[in-house]
Specification:
Blueprint: H1 9-20, H2 29-38, H3 43-67, H4 69-79, H5 86-96, H6 98-106, H7 111-120, H8 125-160, H9 162-184, H10 192-203
Helix pairs in contact: 1-3, 2-3, 2-8, 3-4, 3-7, 3-8, 5-7, 6-7, 6-8
Length: 204
């Protein structure tokens, strides 16, 4: 709590939000929550900084996918254990487009997987930016607004139930990773996009 209230904590928040959206595996939500708890009156400001820094990081992830997919993107996704989820991410883009980015930005699904994939698939930049901004604002600014309005009561509740809140958050994050991994399947399963393509060819 003391470090979260430190003047330089804002820069650390922006830094972690930036790198998490492009390659860092640990989400910045705990730091944002602690900072909002330490200074509820600045919660909205913290959440806006987190949103903008995360969208900027998403652009960096997009650049990795667009310019350096083979040399950087693939090794990076392999290192953080998301490479097997790439086929499912591609299929998701084919079906949902910008909505896939918004969903990933607002849920525990790894945002970096979608930002790198968006770049690799050359998604139009403006829809990518708008979708990223909408999703990140939904998850970050909502927290900021709640702390801004109900800061003290929420602080007392979380102080009392911090263990439970932390456990729930960890379960959500782990659940997001498991969900996206399961969507990706294992090496023995057929690519869902390939299955759809084969079915379409058969019908033709």
């Amino acid at each position: 709590m003391d470090k979260a209230a430190h003047p330089h904590a804002v820069w650390w928040l922006a830094f972690f939000c930036f790198i998490e959206a492009s390659f860092f595996p640990i989400p910045p939500h705990p730091l944002l929550g602690l900072m909002c708890l330490a200074e509820p009156k600045k919660a909205l400001r913290f959440s806006i900084i987190a949103t903008l820094a995360s969208v900027a990081g998403g652009l960096f992830g997009y650049a990795i996918g667009y310019l350096l997919y083979d040399s950087v993107g693939v090794p990076l996704l392999t290192m953080i254990g998301l490479i097997d989820s790439l086929p499912a991410a591609k299929c998701t883009f084919d079906e949902y487009g910008a909505y896939a980015v918004t969903i990933a930005a607002a849920t525990p699904v790894p945002f970096k997987l979608l930002t790198i994939t968006a770049g690799f698939l050359s998604m139009d930049l403006l829809p990518f930016l708008l979708a990223s901004l909408a999703g990140r604002a939904l998850i970050f600014v909502t927290v900021g607004v709640l702390f801004q309005i109900f800061g003290r009561p929420i602080k007392r509740i979380i102080d009392e139930y911090l263990g439970t809140v932390t456990t729930v958050f960890v379960l959500l994050v782990v659940g997001g990773f498991i969900a996206i991994t399961q969507l990706g399947g294992n090496g023995e399963e057929e690519d869902p996009c390939a299955v759809s393509s084969s079915a379409a060819q058969t019908e033709a």
